[in-house]
Amino acid sequence: MVTVISLGGSIVAPDGIDTDFIAAFIGLLKTELASDEKRRFILVVGGGGPARRYQQAYRSIVQDAADEQADWIGIMATRLNAQLLKAVLGDLCTQEVVTDPSQVGPFVGRVLVAAGWKPGFSTDFDAVLLAERFQADKVINLSNIAKVYTDDPRKNPDAKPIDSISWEAFRAIVGDDWVPGKNVPFDPVASRHAAKIGLKVICAAGKDLENLKKILSGQEFFGTTIG
After folding, report:
1. Cβ within 8 Å of residue 156, ≥6 positions away
2. Distance CA 88, CA 82 (A)
3. Which residue, 37, 78, 85, 211, has fewest beta-carbon neighbours within 10 Å?
4. Contact call for residues 111 and 29 (beta carbons, < 8 A)
5. Cα–Cα distance between 8 and 136 in angstroms, integer?
6. What strands lie across the sheet with 224-226, from one edge to the other?
7. pLDDT at 180
8. Which residues have C-beta within 8 Å of that of residue 130, sequence separation ≥ 6?
9. How far is it, in rounded angstroms, from Cα 18 to Cα 29?
10. Looking at the whole model, is its pTM more than 0.85?
11. What is the pLDDT of residues 86-99, one digit of tens each?
12. What are the residues whose beta carbons fall under 8 Å from the beta carbon of 207, sequence distance 6 or more?
């Protein structure tokens, strides 16, 4: 039983590294793994604050900054965060950090950690590809957003939270194009492929670990189901 978690960089490294969260999150995974010997996790981690800071530095120095170079900067931040998670997991993660989900071999061990692959999309797309590769029925997308809204609630006070939404309706909200550092509940490129293969995505607040326990156990949870 493989569970894919797309772990937003904004909750792993919002500015500095949130060591308290990482310790608690890994502790929860260890409890889940100990309770079911068949359970395995794939963690795909984003770039967070370091990615944004370095991308902003690049754009402030170079007038005609290229999206591809900004993407590579963000990808390198994801790989640093992923290497940290792998190190913290110890013997539970025996494979190297996955940087190309199209070439990953058999899943060995209990936890697989993945990072950014190449320009053109975020780590959400890597999570979708890995869910497809290892036949997971959903991706749990943990970020600093507790629910998907009809619009950006920071800009539109009339935006409403959504419990469940189709891929067609969700894609109408986020669009089709990816821009490095784009802040959306789920990457448009990942959304297109998830819709194509019939994958569900659950969006929930990453730091609410009690809520994550409910998701993992199939209980009623606070968040948004897409698909």
Report:
1. none
2. 10
3. 37
4. yes
5. 19
6. 111-114, 40-45, 2-7, 138-143, 200-205, 224-226, 164-165
7. 67
8. 4, 42, 44, 98, 101, 104, 112, 114, 136
9. 17
10. yes
11. 999 999 999 999 99
12. 11, 21, 144
Identity of the residue numbered 151: D
Q: Which two tokens stand for residue 60?
A: 């402030």
Contact 134, 101 (CB under 8 A): no
Long-range Cβ pairs for the range 67-75 (8 Å, 24+): 67/119, 67/179, 67/180, 68/119, 70/180, 70/181, 71/118, 71/119, 71/120, 71/180, 72/119, 73/180, 74/47, 74/116, 74/122, 74/180, 74/181, 75/47, 75/115, 75/116, 75/117, 75/118, 75/119
The token pair that represents 218 in the structure block: 């199939």
Report the alpha-carbon distance of residue 151 to residue 157 in Å, rounded: 9
DSSP 3-state of 200: strand
